[in-house]
């Protein structure tokens, strides 16, 4: 039974052996090996000489031919690919100078090792000639490249070990060789092998300091079969593996992940809002102060405003309306953070370590800002009116209305009234988030050096969030001023704004251009630390409260990893892993094994669509 065969510890080699032991006698004859190997090769493939000196070491010369036992056959497989490459090199080295053209090297690798290499390597094979002078590739280059392929597993381990020890998550050629010397005892890498590894890994990052994402393009453990049938079989096996290991469906996982992000975002948002609420109150009162106010000008600047609030209303006056703010800011910030994460995840290039093009970062941030307005506008209008009524109560020159609760304001405004000034809110929040989130992301990676192996501390996260909030807050202050004026109930003697355009035109006419930046410094002092606290709390909470049932996935330099392909423990069943490894051994022999061959001169029929 095939299942019994897969249960054996050396199933990979025995499966391959049985393909050539056609008579079931426990031996492989030279004639059978040569016949099956030749029948699998196409007309335009690189030939292989089974009568070579290397082959004679395993099956004897023509005069002393002998059969191979299973252990002999398995050992022969270990060196077969190297001999195929050596013979192919001699075939293309027509003048015997030890060099071949880059195109010939590419053809050799495509025929012998394509199933082991990433798309990045396959596309850039001809560039191997760039590591040395001249435009050709030497036999030493070819052997060094082959050694890199053969030692992918240990290279994977060395790179991850070296990167973990690096402060910025990046390593140089020297770092790699030093770590290899520490880890390996006899399998030392030559300078040329290190040059080749860093050449291909650094094609898109020529600085010489490379991170895991750069190496992933070279040592990606995923592979693709040579036929549609092979791809379908691999896909079916992968699905079976997922079923066996009980993988949660992607849809359910995404829903749970969104709920998790939403909950953490709510807590982080409330924390950030509370920490800077007094500054927000000062900002609102400064923006609502009009130059043409009936009576005297109440506040000279933000500091004067804060002093008068404390003097007239007490310290608690700085927190007027904080409860509705905390209740409303939780879903607001949660939506913003969740939408930004989801949209960034949609645009992120998984093959490049999650990198994202900067216009897509702007789109993700803008989308987050647009979605939050659903909660932001009602929250803002209630908060602003609560913040202003304390000022009204202390203004002896006006007939102050009695203090109103948040519920009274909501009931009095109604659903339509709660969204008064929503257009201005959109005009503020979309550009704010479009500026903020990309800036925050690049500060973390480009300035503070965050990487898959280097996590930032709370102070660094707080600083990045605060710095990113400065340009975002100040540049959107005019929109915030317009929104505040539209949402505050006009007092006696003040102009009543009818629309966004009317408000902007009136402010410009009556107060001048500078009025659009009223409360700008206070807005920076509020928004900058608020988002710093919020984002820092959000990322700390993600570490402290990871999504239940999901382990933190270590970023490995293997790109798309099939089960058990790298040094990470395999999650798939052993029979599947052994059958997959057996297929790789067969492809090492000849990529066309198992592919339907048409008779000479006869084409395969084309299936109708």
What attributes characterize this protein structure?
609 residues, mainly alpha, 3 domains, Recoverin, domain 1, 4 strands, Mitochondrial carrier fold, disordered C terminus
Write the layout of secondary structure elements.
Elements: H1 2-6, H2 11-20, E1 27-28, H3 30-40, H4 53-59, E2 68-69, H5 70-92, E3 99-100, H6 102-112, H7 119-123, E4 137-138, H8 139-150, H9 152-165, H10 173-183, H11 191-201, H12 212-219, H13 228-245, H14 250-275, H15 277-288, H16 302-313, H17 322-347, H18 358-394, H19 406-418, H20 422-447, H21 458-475, H22 477-487, H23 500-511, H24 520-544, H25 574-589
Helix pairs in contact: 2-25, 5-6, 5-8, 8-11, 9-10, 11-12, 14-17, 14-24, 15-16, 15-18, 15-24, 17-18, 18-19, 18-20, 20-21, 20-22, 21-24, 22-23
CATH top level label of the largest domain: Mainly Alpha
Counted up, domains total 3
Distance N to C terminus: 38 Å
Number of helices: 25
Report strand order across the widest sheet: 1-2
Oligomer: single chain
Query: What characteristic shape results from the CA principal axes?
Result: elongated
Strand content: under 5%
Secondary-structure element string: HHEHHEHEHHEHHHHHHHHHHHHHHHHHH
Report the biggest beta sheet as strand number plus sense, adding barrel if it closes: 2 strands, antiparallel
Query: What is the mean pLDDT?
Result: 78
């Amino acid at each position: 039974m095939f299942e019994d065969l897969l249960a054996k510890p050396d199933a990979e080699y025995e499966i391959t052996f049985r393909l050539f032991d056609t008579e079931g006698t426990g031996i492989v004859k030279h004639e059978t090996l040569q016949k099956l190997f030749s029948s699998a090769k196409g007309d335009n493939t690189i030939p292989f000489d089974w009568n070579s000196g290397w082959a004679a070491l395993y099956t004897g010369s023509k005069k002393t031919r002998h059969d191979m036992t299973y252990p002999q056959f398995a050992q022969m497989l270990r060196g077969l690919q190297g001999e195929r490459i050596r013979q192919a090199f001699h075939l293309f080295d027509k003048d015997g100078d030890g060099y071949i053209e880059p195109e010939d090297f590419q053809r050799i690798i495509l025929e012998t090792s394509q199933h082991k290499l990433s798309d990045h390597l396959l596309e850039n094979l001809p560039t191997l000639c760039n590591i040395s002078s001249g435009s050709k590739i030497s036999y030493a280059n070819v052997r060094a490249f082959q050694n890199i392929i053969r030692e992918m597993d240990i290279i994977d381990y060395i790179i991850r070990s070296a990167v973990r020890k690096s402060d910025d998550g990046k390593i140089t050629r020297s770092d790699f060789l030093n770590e290899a010397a520490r880890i390996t005892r006899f399998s030392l890498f030559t300078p040329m092998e290190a040059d080749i590894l860093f050449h291909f890994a650094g094609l898109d990052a020529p600085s010489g300091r490379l991170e895991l994402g750069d190496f992933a393009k070279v040592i990606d453990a995923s592979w693709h079969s040579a036929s549609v049938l092979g791809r379908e079989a691999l896909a079916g096996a992968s699905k079976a593996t997922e079923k066996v290991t009980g993988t949660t469906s992607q849809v359910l996982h995404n829903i749970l992940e969104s709920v998790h992000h939403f909950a953490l975002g709510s807590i982080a948002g409330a924390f950030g809002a509370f920490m800077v609420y007094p500054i927000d109150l000062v900002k609102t009162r400064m923006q609502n102060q009009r130059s043409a106010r009936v009576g005297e000008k109440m506040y000279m600047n933000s500091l004067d405003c804060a002093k008068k609030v404390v003097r007239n209303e007490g310290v608690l006056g700085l927190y007027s309306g904080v409860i509705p703010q905390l209740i409303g800011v939780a879903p607001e910030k949660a939506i913003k953070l969740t939408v930004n994460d989801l949209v960034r995840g949609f645009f992120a290039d998984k093959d490049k370590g999650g990198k994202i093009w900067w216009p897509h970062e702007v789109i993700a941030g803008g989308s987050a800002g647009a979605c939050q307005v659903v909660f932001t506008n009602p929250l803002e209008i209630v908060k602003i009116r609560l913040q202003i009524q304390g000022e009204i109560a202390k203004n002896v020159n006006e007939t102050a209305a009695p203090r109103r609760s948040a519920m009274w304001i909501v009931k009095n405004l109604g659903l339509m009234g709660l969204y008064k000034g929503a257009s201005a809110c959109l005009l503020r929040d979309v550009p704010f988030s479009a500026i903020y989130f990309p800036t925050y992301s690049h500060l973390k990676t480009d300035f503070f050096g965050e990487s898959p192996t280097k996590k930032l501390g709370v102070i660094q996260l707080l600083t990045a969030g605060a710095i990113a909030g400065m340009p975002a807050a100040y540049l959107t202050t005019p929109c915030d001023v317009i929104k505040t004026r539209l949402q505050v109930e006009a007092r006696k003697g003040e102009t009543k704004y009818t629309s966004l355009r009317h408000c902007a035109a009136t402010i410009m006419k009556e107060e001048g251009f500078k009025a659009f930046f009223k409360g700008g410094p206070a807005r920076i002092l509020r928004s900058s630390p608020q988002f710093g606290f919020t984002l820092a709390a959000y990322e700390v909470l993600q570490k402290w409260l990871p999504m239940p049932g999901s382990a933190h996935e270590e970023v490995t330099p293997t790109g798309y990893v099939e089960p058990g392909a790298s040094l990470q423990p395999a999650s798939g069943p052993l029979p599947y892993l052994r059958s997959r490894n057996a297929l790789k051994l067969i492809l090492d022999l000849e990529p066309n094994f198992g592919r339907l061959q048409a008779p000479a001169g006869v084409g395969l029929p084309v299936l109708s669509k």
